[in-house]
Amino acid sequence: MKKIQILGTGCAKCMKLTENAEKAAQEAGIEFEIQKVQDIKEIMSYGVMMTPGLAIDGEVKAVGKVLSVEEIKKLL
Q1: Gap between the terminal Cα atoms of the chain
Q2: 74 located within any domain
Q3: Which domain holds residue 21?
Q4: 51 in any annotated domain
Q5: What gap in Å lies between CA 38 and CA 40, rounded to an integer?
Q6: In sequence order, what E strands does 1-76 have?
Q7: Where residue 20 falls among pLDDT bands split at 50, 70, 90?
Q8: Among 14, 62, 11, 13, CA closest to 34
Q9: Does residue 75 lie in a domain region?
Q10: Adjacent-strand bridge partners of 7
Q11: Active site members
Q12: Residue 36 covered by a domain
C-alpha cells in the first residue's frame, strides 16, 4: 500500500492536491492511504518550506505546486 502524504495547512491548493492525488491513485488502481500533514513543524521536518508538498512513502516528490492527476500517476 502506498502512503501519500499531503504537506500543507489545509489551504485551497492543498485540498486540490489531495483531490488530484486520490484520483491519480484510483486511476492507477493501487492501494493507497492519504495522510494530511498539517503541523508546520512536521512539514518542516520533511525539508518543505513551501506548501503544498507531496510525499509518497515518506519521500518528498513535489513542493510548492499542485501537481496534475497525470503528473501524480507518473510518481506512483
Answers
A1: 11
A2: no
A3: 2-57
A4: yes
A5: 6
A6: 2-7, 32-37, 53-56, 59-63
A7: very high
A8: 14
A9: no
A10: 37, 53
A11: 11, 14
A12: yes
